[in-house]
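Q: What would this chain look like folded?
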Amino acid sequence: MVLVGIEEPEIALHPAAAGVLLDGLRDAAHRTQVIVTTHSPDLLEDKHLDVESILAVEAHGGNTTIAPVDEVGRSVVHDKLFTIGELLRIDQLQPDETSVVSAEKAKQLRLFDFERRNSGKTKDEERRG
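A: My prediction, written as structure tokens:
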């Protein structure tokens, strides 16, 4: 399978063309995996855009969090109270904290996996001591 990645297509796009771009991306997604990054609420304004296909990104203190949209965001989009673009406009498109592994824990997991791979021990051998 082919992966197509497009970073911020709205930079060179007239705002009125966002719908045409979304239609093209949807069409392409039937044949390949498509990943698009954007800061454009206009691009996310489509009422048919599935909130489950969106990952929210947030940066704090040098750490970047990428996760599905939080429960409140998913709920208001499903209930048609807001679009994804409107949530972005009001700074409420937030990553779901329950889906996030802390950066420190992720580093520890990588460290332990590295040590295990290089020690030649299996998980069971490590548990037994």
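Helices lie at 18-29, 71-78, 84-89, 103-119, 123-128.
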